[in-house]
Amino acid sequence: MNASSPDGPLISLSGVTRTYPVGGSHVHALDGVDLTVRAGEYLSIMGPSGSGKSTLLHVIGLLDRPDTGRYLLDGRDTGTLPDREQAALRLHHIGFVFQFFHLIPRLTAAENVALPLELAGVDAAGAAARVHQALAELGLEDRAGHRPDQLSGGQRQRVAIARATIMQPGILLADEPTGNLDRHSGAEVVELLEELNGRGIALLVVTHDPVIGERARRRIRVEDGTIVSDNGAGS
Amino acid sequence: MKTRRQARFALRAVTASRLRSALMLLALAIGVAAVVVLTALGEGARRYVGGEFSALGTNLVIVLPGATETTGGPPPIMGVTPRDLTVQDAIALSHSRAVERVAPVAVGIAPVSRGSREREVMVLGTTHDMLSVRHLTMAAGRFLPPGDPERGDPVAVVGDTIRRELFAGKNPVGEWVRLGDRRFRVIGLLADTGRSMGTDLDQVVVIPVSQAQALFGTPGLFRVILQARGRDRVEMAKADAMRIIAERHEGEADVTVITQDAILATFDRIFTALTATVGGIAAISLIVAGILVMNVMLVAVAQRTPEVGLLKALGATPRRVRLLFLWEAALLSLAGAACGLALGYLGVAAIGQFYPGFPVAVPPWAAGAAVAVSGTAGLAFGVWPASRAARLDPVASLERR
Ligand SMILES: Nc1ncnc2c1ncn2[C@@H]1O[C@H](COP(=O)(O)OP(=O)(O)O)[C@@H](O)[C@H]1O
Ligand SMILES: [Mg+2]
User: Fold this and answer.
1) Which of B110, B184, B189 is nearest to B154 (CA)?
2) What's the confidence (pLDDT) of residue A59?
């Protein structure tokens, strides 16, 4: 993404809270989170189940709005942006990878990858070329015409990663990307994500797997909606 | 997404859930077909009546004794019965330059007999001009001869039923029949035309008007039928008739003059209104179909909630999501309308096959209106589900699996 301030942080959260009303009380999914991420960084986010990792990723990915606190994306305050502009930011600057892939079952691999291009209004010929290239880089060119149910889990996740990066975003958010894969496919997926990070994309991976978590240069631990450790804070 | 792509994407969504889409299609198709068939029946009725009316003759003006409208003046001191409409009146009417032919009509019931066979018939007293005024055709012999309307010979033209019942099916021309206490020579046989606006011409005996007046003992005519010289002369003929009768009846136009066009226009209005009403009733089925569309779309939104969540996560704006579902509704509505039109026209064609005499036809506005209503219903009832989809929260939607 085009950094408006080349040396400023890509992501800057300060005092972010997110509460959900549950029954009569409130659950603090995020409780005063401060986090700064620079362009091209590689973070792993770990913590117990229900600690707020997904919520954090959703807030960063503009899928969820904080109740209080500020979120600057590339220097821009996102809190006041209307839905339409948040959608545009998601489309062009943020890629999402989910545990359950979330491919549309009736569309082929190529069509799933092309979805963001369609949303962006890229012309059919240009889109086809880019999709072909993206699938080829992942070694999936012979799977382009297959539907998700004709693909293995690892292949599905690679298609999902191709879709998340087809718009060449500056941020790639992965919420337990290996959580639904066997060890071998999981390792392949992590290698792929790291390769993309090597080309400059900022990578934030939520994981339960300490082996995967340890691979990141910067490791964050979340408990009860707050960041309890961060080996790269302020660096 | 460009329009074509949006349509294609929606099309894939539609074809992915075949049963649901088929249900919606069927509902809309039945509604459209109902509109098409019912309005075609109404239009057929209108054309049927119009056709019957034109068969009576063209550019006709009918003069009836007695004014229907009150003139608004003070009531007459002495009870005034309307003056009779006479053969002399009819002759005077023929002097109008707008009038081409005049046929006076006297009507009565009389027993007709030949030998021992006898039956009651309607006797029509008229003149030679009646032949062309009413577009009558002869099966044998000739019609009443031209000549002075006040002095006709005792001759008769009979219908087909009379031939069968009194002449045992043999050619009656040249034979004699008895009407009341008078003898008439049969000179012609009317062609079998069936019913024509309530008068079964097969059962009449036509005699010169002067003979009919003598037979019934009254100078009064049942009516006088004028044929104008052209369509543009009809109104003039009507005005002339009023004026001439007023001149002859001491300043009082105590007749009612009806033009064929006016009657036809009245029937036309009645049947057009009927067709519209029936079409409207059928359109209610389209509203019902629209509600079904809404339900089906709501189910579609519910089923595709994770998909909507995904599209939003990928960067689809609410507007885009709404458009996607509206496209789906529009495509289904259009397809349903197309199927309904096909079904409706097929039904109309089938009715035409079974009842060749009934001029059933889809009025051009009906097909258009049916498609418009189904499209509007489909879209209108698609709006709410679509905006529900547009408002979905991406995170919650994605987690619903
Ligand atoms: N939509 C929601 N409604 C109510 N509570 C929620 C909702 N989403 C998350 N939470 C709660 O917020 C907390 C953090 O959830 P989450 O971010 O999904 O945790 P993690 O991803 O670390 O497992 C949990 O206690 C969870 O129950
Ligand atoms: Mg989670």
Assistant:
1) B184
2) 95
- The residue that leads in pLDDT, A111 or B371, is A111
Structural domains of chain A in order of their starting residue, each with its CATH number: 11-102+169-230 (3.40.50.300)
The complex's ipTM works out to 0.91
What tokens appear for B211 in the block?
């003979």
Sequence ranges of the domains in chain B: 3-53+270-399, 83-253
Q: In whole angstroms, what is the distance from residue A144 CA to residue A167 CA?
A: 18
Which member of B2, B306, B394 has the closest CB to residue A63? B394
How far is B224 from B202, CA to CA, in rounded Å?
21
Question: Exposed (0-12), middle (13-18) or buried (19+): which is B182, by Cβ within 10 Å?
Answer: middle
> Which ligand neighbours the alpha carbon of A50 most closely?
1
Q: B399: which 2 tokens?
A: 């987690």
Nearest CA to ligand 1 atom 18: A54
Give the number of other Cβ atoms within 10 Å of residue B376's Cβ: 14
Nearest to A119 among B16, B309, B315 (CB): B315
pLDDT band at A203; cut points 50, 70, 90: very high
- Distance from first CA to last CA of chain A, Å, rounded? 22
Query: In angstroms, what is the span from residue A54 Cα to ligand 2's centroid?
Result: 4
pLDDT at A12: 94
Q: Which two tokens stand for residue B20?
A: 């649901």
Cross-strand bridge partners of residue A174: A97, A205
**3-class DSSP state of B258:** strand
A49: left (phi over 0), alpha (psi -120 to 50) or beta: beta
- Contacts of residue B241, defined as CB under 8 A and 6 or more positions apart, other chains included, come to B61, B63, B93, B96, B99, B226, B255, B257
Q: Which residues line ligand 1 (CB under 6 A)?
A: A 20, 22, 27, 29, 47, 49-55; B 396
Q: Give pLDDT tens digits for A97-133.
A: 999 999 988 889 999 999 999 889 888 888 999 999 9
* Position A233 confidence tier, pLDDT thresholds 50, 70, 90: low
d(CA B310, CA B276): 47
pTM metric for this prediction: 0.68
Name residue, tokens 């779309």.
Answer: B297
Phi, psi of A58 (to 5 degrees): -65, -40
Q: Measured between alpha carbons, how far is B222 from B62 in angstroms, rounded to an integer?
A: 11
Burial of B253 (0-12, 13-18, 19+ CB in 10 A): middle
Cβ burial of B310 (10 Å; 0-12, 13-18, 19+) is: buried
Quick one: pLDDT at residue A3? Answer: 45
Is A106 in Cβ contact with B314 (below 8 Å)?
no
| pLDDT at residue B1 greater than cutoff 50 | no
Look at residue B386 and tell me whether its pLDDT is greater than 80. Answer: yes
